[in-house]
Amino acid sequence: MTGNAAAFATQRDELTSRLDEPRTYDIAIIGGGATGLGVALDAAVRGFSVILFDSHDFAKGTSSRATKLVHGGVRYLAQGNISLVREALHERTTLLANAPHLAQPLPFVMPSYRFWEAPFYGVGLKMYDALAGKAGLGATEFLSRDETLALLPNTRQQRPGGRLQGGVKYWDGQFDDARLALALARTAAVHGGLLVNYCSATRLLHQNGKIIGVEVEDQETGKSYDIKAKCVVNATGVWVDQFRMEDARSMGKAVQAMVAPSQGVHIVVDREFLPGHHALLVPKTGDGRVLFAVPWLGKTVLGTTDTPRGDLAREPEAFREEVDFILGECANYLTRSPTRADIKSIWVGLRPLVKPADNGGDHTQGISREHTVLVSKTGLVTVTGGKWTTYRAMAEDVLNHCFQASLLAAKPAGATVRLPLVGSRVSTKKISDEPGIHLYGSDADTVLALPGADRQLGGGLTEAMVRFAVRFEYARTVEDVLARRSRLLFLDAAQARQTAAVVADILQDEKIADPGLTAFLTLCDQYLHIPP
Protein backbone atom coordinates (compact mmCIF):
# COMPACT_ATOMS: atom_id res chain seq x y z
CA MET A 1 0.00 0.00 0.00
CA THR A 2 1.60 3.25 -1.06
CA GLY A 3 -1.26 5.66 -0.60
CA ASN A 4 -1.78 9.11 -2.07
CA ALA A 5 0.00 12.10 -0.52
CA ALA A 6 -3.25 14.05 -0.37
CA ALA A 7 -4.81 11.30 1.77
CA PHE A 8 -2.66 11.95 4.82
CA ALA A 9 -1.77 15.60 5.09
CA THR A 10 0.30 16.38 8.19
CA GLN A 11 -1.18 19.60 9.54
CA ARG A 12 0.16 20.18 13.03
CA ASP A 13 -3.14 21.14 14.64
CA GLU A 14 -4.77 17.94 13.50
CA LEU A 15 -1.93 15.80 14.81
CA THR A 16 -1.74 17.42 18.25
CA SER A 17 -5.53 17.50 18.68
CA ARG A 18 -5.47 13.70 18.60
CA LEU A 19 -3.19 13.71 21.66
CA ASP A 20 -6.18 14.80 23.75
CA GLU A 21 -8.19 11.71 22.83
CA PRO A 22 -8.93 9.57 25.94
CA ARG A 23 -7.60 6.22 24.81
CA THR A 24 -4.98 3.59 25.54
CA TYR A 25 -2.68 2.75 22.64
CA ASP A 26 -1.26 -0.69 22.09
CA ILE A 27 2.23 0.69 21.69
CA ALA A 28 3.86 4.07 22.36
CA ILE A 29 7.30 4.66 20.86
CA ILE A 30 9.82 7.24 22.07
CA GLY A 31 12.21 8.18 19.28
CA GLY A 32 11.65 8.90 15.60
CA GLY A 33 14.85 7.58 14.07
CA ALA A 34 15.25 4.53 11.86
CA THR A 35 14.54 2.07 14.67
CA GLY A 36 11.52 3.79 16.19
CA LEU A 37 9.95 4.49 12.80
CA GLY A 38 10.55 0.91 11.74
CA VAL A 39 8.76 -0.37 14.85
CA ALA A 40 5.89 2.07 14.30
CA LEU A 41 5.41 0.91 10.72
CA ASP A 42 5.58 -2.81 11.52
CA ALA A 43 3.18 -2.48 14.45
CA ALA A 44 0.71 -0.34 12.50
CA VAL A 45 0.70 -2.72 9.53
CA ARG A 46 -0.01 -5.63 11.89
CA GLY A 47 -3.06 -3.79 13.16
CA PHE A 48 -1.84 -2.41 16.49
CA SER A 49 -2.75 1.12 17.55
CA VAL A 50 0.49 3.10 17.43
CA ILE A 51 1.71 6.47 18.64
CA LEU A 52 5.27 7.78 18.24
CA PHE A 53 7.01 10.91 19.54
CA ASP A 54 10.28 12.61 18.81
CA SER A 55 11.61 15.54 20.80
CA HIS A 56 13.04 17.02 17.60
CA ASP A 57 12.43 16.23 13.95
CA PHE A 58 12.24 12.69 12.61
CA ALA A 59 15.75 11.41 11.83
CA LYS A 60 17.28 14.57 13.30
CA GLY A 61 20.02 12.56 14.99
CA THR A 62 22.07 9.60 13.80
CA SER A 63 19.48 8.44 11.27
CA SER A 64 20.11 11.36 8.89
CA ARG A 65 23.92 11.22 9.23
CA ALA A 66 24.73 7.77 7.86
CA THR A 67 27.24 7.09 5.09
CA LYS A 68 24.18 6.59 2.82
CA LEU A 69 24.98 2.92 2.21
CA VAL A 70 22.56 -0.01 2.26
CA HIS A 71 25.06 -2.78 2.78
CA GLY A 72 25.72 -6.19 4.20
CA GLY A 73 28.92 -4.99 5.83
CA VAL A 74 32.14 -6.06 4.17
CA ARG A 75 34.12 -5.26 7.33
CA TYR A 76 31.75 -7.43 9.42
CA LEU A 77 32.57 -10.30 7.06
CA ALA A 78 36.26 -9.72 7.77
CA GLN A 79 35.44 -9.92 11.49
CA GLY A 80 33.79 -13.30 10.94
CA ASN A 81 30.27 -12.10 11.80
CA ILE A 82 28.58 -14.21 9.13
CA SER A 83 25.08 -14.10 10.64
CA LEU A 84 25.02 -10.29 10.73
CA VAL A 85 26.23 -10.08 7.12
CA ARG A 86 23.69 -12.63 5.90
CA GLU A 87 20.82 -10.82 7.63
CA ALA A 88 21.96 -7.44 6.32
CA LEU A 89 22.28 -8.71 2.75
CA HIS A 90 18.72 -10.05 2.90
CA GLU A 91 17.44 -6.79 4.32
CA ARG A 92 19.40 -4.82 1.71
CA THR A 93 17.36 -6.45 -1.04
CA THR A 94 14.10 -5.88 0.81
CA LEU A 95 14.85 -2.19 1.31
CA LEU A 96 15.79 -1.65 -2.34
CA ALA A 97 12.59 -3.37 -3.46
CA ASN A 98 10.29 -1.44 -1.08
CA ALA A 99 11.75 2.03 -1.75
CA PRO A 100 13.23 2.05 -5.28
CA HIS A 101 12.85 5.84 -5.51
CA LEU A 102 15.17 6.27 -2.49
CA ALA A 103 17.54 3.29 -2.66
CA GLN A 104 19.48 1.87 -5.60
CA PRO A 105 22.42 -0.48 -6.27
CA LEU A 106 25.86 1.14 -6.26
CA PRO A 107 29.09 -0.33 -7.65
CA PHE A 108 32.29 -0.08 -5.56
CA VAL A 109 35.89 -0.37 -6.67
CA MET A 110 38.67 -1.42 -4.34
CA PRO A 111 42.05 -0.52 -5.93
CA SER A 112 45.01 -2.78 -5.13
CA TYR A 113 48.65 -1.71 -4.88
CA ARG A 114 50.20 -4.96 -3.70
CA PHE A 115 50.12 -8.19 -5.68
CA TRP A 116 48.18 -10.03 -2.96
CA GLU A 117 45.44 -7.45 -2.30
CA ALA A 118 43.11 -8.16 -5.24
CA PRO A 119 42.99 -11.95 -4.74
CA PHE A 120 42.82 -11.61 -0.95
CA TYR A 121 39.92 -9.14 -0.89
CA GLY A 122 38.37 -10.60 -4.04
CA VAL A 123 37.94 -14.00 -2.42
CA GLY A 124 36.23 -12.35 0.53
CA LEU A 125 33.92 -10.44 -1.78
CA LYS A 126 33.11 -13.62 -3.69
CA MET A 127 32.01 -15.02 -0.33
CA TYR A 128 29.95 -11.84 0.08
CA ASP A 129 28.25 -12.70 -3.24
CA ALA A 130 27.67 -16.27 -2.10
CA LEU A 131 26.04 -15.14 1.16
CA ALA A 132 23.76 -12.83 -0.82
CA GLY A 133 22.72 -15.63 -3.17
CA LYS A 134 19.72 -14.65 -5.26
CA ALA A 135 19.65 -11.34 -3.38
CA GLY A 136 22.94 -10.30 -4.96
CA LEU A 137 23.09 -7.02 -6.88
CA GLY A 138 25.92 -7.97 -9.23
CA ALA A 139 28.87 -10.31 -9.41
CA THR A 140 32.27 -9.37 -8.01
CA GLU A 141 34.80 -8.76 -10.79
CA PHE A 142 38.59 -8.65 -10.84
CA LEU A 143 39.84 -5.57 -12.69
CA SER A 144 43.02 -4.88 -14.57
CA ARG A 145 45.01 -1.72 -13.93
CA ASP A 146 43.47 -0.01 -16.98
CA GLU A 147 39.95 -1.10 -16.04
CA THR A 148 40.43 0.28 -12.53
CA LEU A 149 41.59 3.63 -13.88
CA ALA A 150 38.64 3.74 -16.30
CA LEU A 151 36.18 3.37 -13.43
CA LEU A 152 38.11 5.55 -10.97
CA PRO A 153 39.96 8.00 -13.25
CA ASN A 154 41.31 10.10 -10.37
CA THR A 155 43.02 7.13 -8.72
CA ARG A 156 46.76 7.33 -8.02
CA GLN A 157 48.89 5.05 -10.18
CA GLN A 158 51.66 5.14 -7.61
CA ARG A 159 51.44 5.48 -3.82
CA PRO A 160 53.62 4.62 -0.81
CA GLY A 161 52.15 1.10 -0.78
CA GLY A 162 53.30 0.41 -4.33
CA ARG A 163 52.18 0.72 -7.94
CA LEU A 164 48.53 0.25 -8.94
CA GLN A 165 48.09 -3.42 -9.82
CA GLY A 166 44.38 -3.53 -10.56
CA GLY A 167 41.30 -3.75 -8.40
CA VAL A 168 38.10 -5.50 -7.43
CA LYS A 169 34.59 -4.33 -8.25
CA TYR A 170 31.61 -5.36 -6.15
CA TRP A 171 28.05 -4.16 -5.50
CA ASP A 172 26.17 -2.76 -2.53
CA GLY A 173 23.35 -0.23 -2.20
CA GLN A 174 22.93 3.48 -1.58
CA PHE A 175 19.99 5.46 -0.19
CA ASP A 176 18.78 8.80 1.11
CA ASP A 177 18.53 8.13 4.85
CA ALA A 178 16.45 11.12 5.98
CA ARG A 179 13.95 10.76 3.15
CA LEU A 180 13.63 7.05 3.84
CA ALA A 181 12.84 7.91 7.45
CA LEU A 182 10.07 10.21 6.21
CA ALA A 183 8.76 7.46 3.95
CA LEU A 184 8.56 5.13 6.96
CA ALA A 185 6.73 7.76 9.01
CA ARG A 186 4.27 8.57 6.25
CA THR A 187 3.60 4.91 5.47
CA ALA A 188 2.94 4.23 9.16
CA ALA A 189 0.49 7.17 9.12
CA VAL A 190 -1.31 5.67 6.12
CA HIS A 191 -1.79 2.53 8.21
CA GLY A 192 -3.29 4.45 11.13
CA GLY A 193 -0.26 5.40 13.22
CA LEU A 194 -0.07 8.78 14.94
CA LEU A 195 3.43 10.23 14.65
CA VAL A 196 4.31 13.61 16.15
CA ASN A 197 7.66 15.36 15.88
CA TYR A 198 8.74 18.18 18.19
CA CYS A 199 6.92 16.42 21.01
CA SER A 200 9.25 15.19 23.75
CA ALA A 201 8.74 12.44 26.29
CA THR A 202 9.25 14.13 29.67
CA ARG A 203 8.71 11.16 31.98
CA LEU A 204 7.52 7.57 32.09
CA LEU A 205 4.18 6.85 33.73
CA HIS A 206 4.17 4.01 36.27
CA GLN A 207 1.39 2.31 38.17
CA ASN A 208 1.80 -0.60 40.57
CA GLY A 209 5.37 -1.10 39.43
CA LYS A 210 4.54 -1.26 35.74
CA ILE A 211 4.87 1.18 32.81
CA ILE A 212 1.45 2.41 31.73
CA GLY A 213 2.41 5.23 29.38
CA VAL A 214 4.41 8.40 28.79
CA GLU A 215 4.04 12.06 29.65
CA VAL A 216 4.88 14.18 26.60
CA GLU A 217 5.19 17.88 25.93
CA ASP A 218 4.46 19.69 22.68
CA GLN A 219 7.67 21.66 22.04
CA GLU A 220 5.80 24.33 20.10
CA THR A 221 3.05 25.10 22.64
CA GLY A 222 4.43 23.76 25.91
CA LYS A 223 1.25 21.75 26.50
CA SER A 224 1.63 18.40 28.27
CA TYR A 225 -0.28 15.19 27.63
CA ASP A 226 -0.48 11.87 29.45
CA ILE A 227 -0.41 9.12 26.83
CA LYS A 228 -1.52 5.69 28.02
CA ALA A 229 -0.16 2.57 26.33
CA LYS A 230 0.04 -1.18 26.95
CA CYS A 231 3.64 -1.18 25.77
CA VAL A 232 6.28 1.58 25.73
CA VAL A 233 9.33 1.26 23.47
CA ASN A 234 12.46 3.30 24.19
CA ALA A 235 14.05 3.74 20.74
CA THR A 236 16.06 6.90 21.36
CA GLY A 237 19.40 5.73 19.95
CA VAL A 238 22.41 7.05 21.84
CA TRP A 239 20.03 8.56 24.41
CA VAL A 240 18.33 5.31 25.52
CA ASP A 241 20.13 5.23 28.86
CA GLN A 242 18.24 8.34 30.01
CA PHE A 243 14.93 6.48 30.09
CA ARG A 244 16.47 3.21 31.27
CA MET A 245 17.89 5.00 34.30
CA GLU A 246 14.63 6.83 35.00
CA ASP A 247 12.80 3.51 34.84
CA ALA A 248 15.29 1.88 37.21
CA ARG A 249 14.95 4.76 39.72
CA SER A 250 11.21 4.12 39.87
CA MET A 251 12.10 0.72 41.38
CA GLY A 252 14.78 2.15 43.64
CA LYS A 253 17.54 0.56 41.59
CA ALA A 254 20.33 1.61 39.26
CA VAL A 255 21.51 0.35 35.88
CA GLN A 256 24.77 0.72 34.02
CA ALA A 257 24.89 2.64 30.75
CA MET A 258 24.66 0.28 27.78
CA VAL A 259 25.69 2.67 24.97
CA ALA A 260 29.24 3.57 23.97
CA PRO A 261 28.78 6.45 21.51
CA SER A 262 31.06 6.42 18.48
CA GLN A 263 31.46 9.53 16.36
CA GLY A 264 31.38 9.24 12.58
CA VAL A 265 32.54 12.25 10.56
CA HIS A 266 31.69 12.80 6.90
CA ILE A 267 33.17 15.40 4.57
CA VAL A 268 31.43 16.50 1.36
CA VAL A 269 33.33 17.79 -1.66
CA ASP A 270 32.54 18.36 -5.33
CA ARG A 271 32.02 15.41 -7.67
CA GLU A 272 35.19 16.27 -9.64
CA PHE A 273 37.24 14.47 -6.98
CA LEU A 274 35.42 11.21 -7.76
CA PRO A 275 34.15 11.48 -11.34
CA GLY A 276 31.97 8.70 -12.67
CA HIS A 277 29.40 6.50 -10.98
CA HIS A 278 31.56 4.17 -8.88
CA ALA A 279 32.40 4.47 -5.20
CA LEU A 280 35.91 3.99 -3.83
CA LEU A 281 36.53 1.65 -0.91
CA VAL A 282 39.79 1.46 1.02
CA PRO A 283 39.37 -1.68 3.17
CA LYS A 284 42.24 -0.93 5.56
CA THR A 285 43.66 2.51 6.20
CA GLY A 286 46.84 3.25 8.11
CA ASP A 287 45.10 2.63 11.43
CA GLY A 288 42.94 -0.27 10.28
CA ARG A 289 39.71 1.59 9.53
CA VAL A 290 37.62 1.54 6.37
CA LEU A 291 37.48 4.62 4.13
CA PHE A 292 34.73 5.39 1.62
CA ALA A 293 34.50 7.95 -1.16
CA VAL A 294 30.91 7.78 -2.37
CA PRO A 295 29.06 9.68 -5.11
CA TRP A 296 25.80 11.03 -3.66
CA LEU A 297 23.27 13.53 -5.06
CA GLY A 298 25.83 15.23 -7.29
CA LYS A 299 28.57 15.47 -4.65
CA THR A 300 31.16 13.14 -3.13
CA VAL A 301 30.94 11.97 0.49
CA LEU A 302 34.21 11.08 2.20
CA GLY A 303 34.37 9.15 5.44
CA THR A 304 33.94 7.85 7.91
CA THR A 305 35.69 7.98 11.27
CA ASP A 306 35.04 5.82 14.32
CA THR A 307 35.99 7.85 17.37
CA PRO A 308 34.75 7.34 20.97
CA ARG A 309 32.82 10.31 22.31
CA GLY A 310 31.79 10.80 25.92
CA ASP A 311 29.09 13.42 25.53
CA LEU A 312 25.79 13.14 23.68
CA ALA A 313 25.69 16.46 21.83
CA ARG A 314 22.71 16.94 19.51
CA GLU A 315 25.01 18.63 17.00
CA PRO A 316 28.44 17.08 17.56
CA GLU A 317 31.39 18.74 15.84
CA ALA A 318 34.27 17.07 14.06
CA PHE A 319 37.63 16.85 15.77
CA ARG A 320 40.63 18.29 13.91
CA GLU A 321 42.36 14.92 13.79
CA GLU A 322 39.30 13.32 12.16
CA VAL A 323 39.27 15.84 9.33
CA ASP A 324 43.03 15.44 8.88
CA PHE A 325 42.65 11.65 8.84
CA ILE A 326 40.02 11.65 6.08
CA LEU A 327 41.81 14.19 3.89
CA GLY A 328 45.16 12.51 4.47
CA GLU A 329 43.88 9.06 3.51
CA CYS A 330 42.18 10.46 0.41
CA ALA A 331 45.49 12.01 -0.63
CA ASN A 332 47.02 8.52 -0.54
CA TYR A 333 44.60 7.30 -3.19
CA LEU A 334 43.48 10.27 -5.31
CA THR A 335 45.70 12.02 -7.84
CA ARG A 336 43.87 15.27 -7.20
CA SER A 337 42.77 15.11 -3.60
CA PRO A 338 40.56 17.60 -1.74
CA THR A 339 41.94 20.07 0.75
CA ARG A 340 40.24 21.95 3.55
CA ALA A 341 39.39 24.73 1.08
CA ASP A 342 37.35 22.26 -1.00
CA ILE A 343 35.01 21.18 1.81
CA LYS A 344 31.36 21.97 1.14
CA SER A 345 29.94 20.56 4.36
CA ILE A 346 31.04 18.55 7.40
CA TRP A 347 28.49 16.52 9.32
CA VAL A 348 28.82 14.23 12.29
CA GLY A 349 26.69 11.39 13.62
CA LEU A 350 26.82 9.47 16.89
CA ARG A 351 26.48 5.72 16.55
CA PRO A 352 24.76 3.96 19.48
CA LEU A 353 27.15 1.03 19.86
CA VAL A 354 26.20 -1.44 22.57
CA LYS A 355 29.16 -2.04 24.87
CA PRO A 356 29.84 -5.30 26.66
CA ALA A 357 29.93 -5.22 30.44
CA ASP A 358 33.74 -5.34 30.56
CA ASN A 359 34.37 -2.68 27.92
CA GLY A 360 36.46 0.21 29.16
CA GLY A 361 35.02 2.60 26.61
CA ASP A 362 38.41 3.59 25.17
CA HIS A 363 37.79 2.22 21.67
CA THR A 364 34.80 1.35 19.50
CA GLN A 365 36.06 -0.61 16.51
CA GLY A 366 35.68 -3.94 18.29
CA ILE A 367 32.23 -3.25 19.73
CA SER A 368 29.35 -5.12 18.13
CA ARG A 369 27.28 -3.36 15.47
CA GLU A 370 24.35 -5.67 16.20
CA HIS A 371 21.29 -4.32 17.95
CA THR A 372 20.14 -5.16 21.46
CA VAL A 373 16.62 -5.37 22.89
CA LEU A 374 16.01 -5.32 26.65
CA VAL A 375 12.75 -5.55 28.60
CA SER A 376 12.83 -4.21 32.17
CA LYS A 377 10.81 -5.57 35.07
CA THR A 378 8.43 -2.64 34.68
CA GLY A 379 7.85 -3.52 31.03
CA LEU A 380 9.96 -0.80 29.38
CA VAL A 381 11.24 -2.14 26.06
CA THR A 382 14.60 -0.63 25.07
CA VAL A 383 16.23 -1.11 21.69
CA THR A 384 19.50 0.36 20.47
CA GLY A 385 22.49 -0.44 18.27
CA GLY A 386 22.17 -1.94 14.82
CA LYS A 387 22.28 -0.06 11.54
CA TRP A 388 19.96 1.44 8.94
CA THR A 389 20.10 -1.56 6.61
CA THR A 390 18.54 -3.87 9.18
CA TYR A 391 15.89 -1.47 10.55
CA ARG A 392 13.05 -3.75 9.42
CA ALA A 393 14.48 -6.88 11.04
CA MET A 394 15.15 -4.87 14.21
CA ALA A 395 11.51 -3.81 14.30
CA GLU A 396 10.35 -7.42 14.07
CA ASP A 397 12.70 -8.36 16.91
CA VAL A 398 11.35 -5.56 19.10
CA LEU A 399 7.78 -6.74 18.57
CA ASN A 400 8.81 -10.33 19.29
CA HIS A 401 10.16 -9.16 22.66
CA CYS A 402 6.88 -7.36 23.32
CA PHE A 403 5.01 -10.59 22.64
CA GLN A 404 7.35 -12.72 24.77
CA ALA A 405 6.92 -10.29 27.68
CA SER A 406 3.10 -10.52 27.28
CA LEU A 407 2.87 -6.78 26.68
CA LEU A 408 1.05 -7.32 23.39
CA ALA A 409 -0.90 -10.23 21.92
CA ALA A 410 1.22 -11.89 19.25
CA LYS A 411 0.46 -11.36 15.58
CA PRO A 412 2.28 -12.98 12.62
CA ALA A 413 5.54 -11.42 11.44
CA GLY A 414 6.51 -10.61 7.87
CA ALA A 415 3.98 -7.83 7.28
CA THR A 416 6.64 -5.41 6.03
CA VAL A 417 8.73 -7.77 3.88
CA ARG A 418 6.88 -6.82 0.71
CA LEU A 419 5.43 -3.46 1.68
CA PRO A 420 6.14 -0.67 -0.82
CA LEU A 421 6.69 2.58 1.04
CA VAL A 422 4.86 5.81 0.27
CA GLY A 423 6.07 7.22 -3.04
CA SER A 424 7.52 3.95 -4.29
CA ARG A 425 5.41 3.78 -7.43
CA VAL A 426 6.60 5.36 -10.67
CA SER A 427 5.26 8.85 -11.37
CA THR A 428 2.74 9.19 -14.17
CA LYS A 429 4.59 12.28 -15.45
CA LYS A 430 7.91 12.64 -17.18
CA ILE A 431 10.10 14.00 -14.41
CA SER A 432 13.64 13.30 -15.60
CA ASP A 433 14.32 16.96 -16.33
CA GLU A 434 13.24 18.15 -12.88
CA PRO A 435 16.26 18.29 -10.49
CA GLY A 436 15.70 16.19 -7.38
CA ILE A 437 12.06 15.41 -8.17
CA HIS A 438 12.81 11.71 -8.73
CA LEU A 439 13.25 11.32 -4.95
CA TYR A 440 9.50 11.85 -4.56
CA GLY A 441 8.55 8.84 -6.67
CA SER A 442 4.80 8.79 -7.28
CA ASP A 443 4.42 11.86 -5.05
CA ALA A 444 6.13 13.87 -7.79
CA ASP A 445 2.74 14.44 -9.39
CA THR A 446 1.47 16.13 -6.24
CA VAL A 447 4.63 18.21 -5.87
CA LEU A 448 4.48 19.43 -9.45
CA ALA A 449 0.84 20.48 -8.99
CA LEU A 450 1.63 22.78 -6.04
CA PRO A 451 2.27 26.54 -6.35
CA GLY A 452 5.88 27.35 -7.23
CA ALA A 453 6.72 24.09 -9.02
CA ASP A 454 8.70 26.06 -11.60
CA ARG A 455 10.42 28.38 -9.10
CA GLN A 456 13.94 27.15 -8.40
CA LEU A 457 15.38 28.16 -5.01
CA GLY A 458 18.79 26.52 -5.41
CA GLY A 459 20.27 23.05 -5.11
CA GLY A 460 17.37 21.46 -6.98
CA LEU A 461 14.85 22.74 -4.41
CA THR A 462 11.67 24.44 -5.60
CA GLU A 463 9.03 26.47 -3.83
CA ALA A 464 6.58 23.60 -4.41
CA MET A 465 8.90 21.17 -2.62
CA VAL A 466 8.95 23.43 0.42
CA ARG A 467 5.16 23.60 0.47
CA PHE A 468 4.94 19.82 0.06
CA ALA A 469 7.34 19.37 2.99
CA VAL A 470 5.04 21.37 5.27
CA ARG A 471 1.74 19.92 4.07
CA PHE A 472 2.68 16.26 3.70
CA GLU A 473 6.10 15.62 5.31
CA TYR A 474 5.83 17.03 8.86
CA ALA A 475 8.30 19.90 8.24
CA ARG A 476 8.16 22.71 10.81
CA THR A 477 11.42 24.63 10.38
CA VAL A 478 13.92 25.81 7.79
CA GLU A 479 16.27 23.14 9.08
CA ASP A 480 13.67 20.42 8.51
CA VAL A 481 13.38 21.50 4.88
CA LEU A 482 17.04 22.14 4.05
CA ALA A 483 18.61 19.34 6.11
CA ARG A 484 16.19 16.42 5.76
CA ARG A 485 13.43 17.01 3.14
CA SER A 486 16.03 18.51 0.85
CA ARG A 487 19.62 17.50 1.72
CA LEU A 488 21.14 20.86 0.83
CA LEU A 489 22.69 21.50 4.26
CA PHE A 490 24.54 18.18 4.03
CA LEU A 491 25.64 18.79 0.44
CA ASP A 492 26.59 22.47 0.43
CA ALA A 493 26.18 24.40 3.67
CA ALA A 494 27.03 27.76 2.07
CA GLN A 495 24.31 27.35 -0.55
CA ALA A 496 21.87 26.23 2.16
CA ARG A 497 22.65 29.43 4.06
CA GLN A 498 21.91 31.52 0.95
CA THR A 499 18.59 29.70 0.43
CA ALA A 500 17.40 29.83 4.03
CA ALA A 501 15.65 33.22 4.05
CA VAL A 502 13.39 32.48 1.08
CA VAL A 503 12.51 29.09 2.57
CA ALA A 504 11.58 30.82 5.84
CA ASP A 505 9.26 33.18 3.92
CA ILE A 506 7.47 30.23 2.31
CA LEU A 507 7.09 28.50 5.68
CA GLN A 508 5.52 31.61 7.14
CA ASP A 509 3.19 31.75 4.15
CA GLU A 510 2.26 28.17 5.12
CA LYS A 511 1.20 29.50 8.57
CA ILE A 512 4.33 28.52 10.51
CA ALA A 513 4.92 31.45 12.82
CA ASP A 514 8.55 30.77 13.71
CA PRO A 515 10.48 28.79 11.08
CA GLY A 516 13.72 28.99 13.08
CA LEU A 517 15.77 30.97 10.59
CA THR A 518 18.32 32.35 13.04
CA ALA A 519 19.03 28.93 14.54
CA PHE A 520 19.48 27.46 11.08
CA LEU A 521 21.98 30.11 10.02
CA THR A 522 24.05 29.24 13.09
CA LEU A 523 23.84 25.56 12.13
CA CYS A 524 25.10 26.35 8.63
CA ASP A 525 28.14 28.01 10.16
CA GLN A 526 28.84 24.83 12.13
CA TYR A 527 28.59 22.62 9.02
CA LEU A 528 31.07 24.97 7.35
CA HIS A 529 33.41 25.06 10.34
CA ILE A 530 36.71 23.31 9.73
CA PRO A 531 38.54 22.60 12.99
CA PRO A 532 41.89 24.50 13.01
SSE class: alpha+beta
User: Regarding CATH, which class of the largest domain?
Assistant: Alpha Beta
Head-to-tail CA distance between termini: 50 Å
Number of domains: 3
Uncertain regions spanning at least 5 consecutive residues: 1-7, 358-367, 427-433
Q: Give helix % range.
A: 25-40%
Compute the number of strand runs.
22
Annotated CATH architecture of the largest domain: 3-Layer(bba) Sandwich
Secondary structure layout:
Blueprint: H1 12-17, E1 24-30, H2 34-45, E2 50-53, E3 69-70, H3 74-78, H4 82-98, E4 103-112, H5 117-132, E5 141-143, H6 145-151, E6 158-159, E7 162-163, E8 166-175, H7 177-190, E9 194-196, E10 199-207, E11 210-218, E12 224-234, H8 240-249, E13 259-270, E14 279-282, E15 291-296, E16 299-303, E17 307-308, H9 320-333, E18 345-354, E19 371-375, E20 380-385, H10 391-404, H11 444-448, E21 456-458, E22 461-462, H12 463-472, H13 478-485, H14 488-491, H15 493-509, H16 517-528
Parallel strand pairs: 1-2, 1-12, 2-9, 4-14, 12-20
Antiparallel strand pairs: 3-8, 4-8, 5-8, 6-7, 10-11, 11-12, 13-16, 13-17, 13-18, 14-15, 15-16, 19-20, 21-22
Helix pairs in contact: 2-7, 2-10, 13-15, 15-16
